[in-house]
Amino acid sequence: MTTSDRPGEVFDPGQRAQAAQIQATHPQWAVLWGCASCRFWAFPLFAAQPATIISASDPATLVARMRHAELASTPHRASHTPAPHPPR
User: Fold this and answer.
1) What's the confidence (pLDDT) of residue 21?
2) Domain range spanning residue 29?
3) Is residue 87 part of a domain?
């Protein structure tokens, strides 16, 4: 975390910009940088599994975990192959 005596200075501008970029490319998520935790956080804006909150210390890991959560929240469709009809 960057410290400063100047009022109104934004802490960790690089990480906040990365979080904004991730959110721009993944609009189904609210993404932020936690300057106290030094982690990226993602909150789903879709019907995810209950209590889904993703965090990671780097953007690549965050995005990978977000994708995993998206797949886990997608209804699984069983591939259905009709059984062959018995000969008559």
Assistant:
1) 98
2) 13-72
3) no
The domain total for the chain is: 1
User: What CA–CA distance (Å, rounded) separates 52 from 14?
Assistant: 26
Please tell me the distance from the alpha carbon of residue 88 to that of residue 65, in angstroms, as a whole number: 52
Q: Is residue 1 part of a domain?
A: no
Q: Which helix (H) or strand (E) holds 10?
A: none
Q: Which helix (H) or strand (E) holds 78?
A: none
Are 84 and 68 within 8 A, CB to CB? no
4-44 pLDDT, tens per residue?
Answer: 566 666 789 999 999 999 999 999 999 999 999 999 999 99
Q: Residue 76 is encoded by which pair of tokens? A: 């699984």
Any domain includes 61: yes
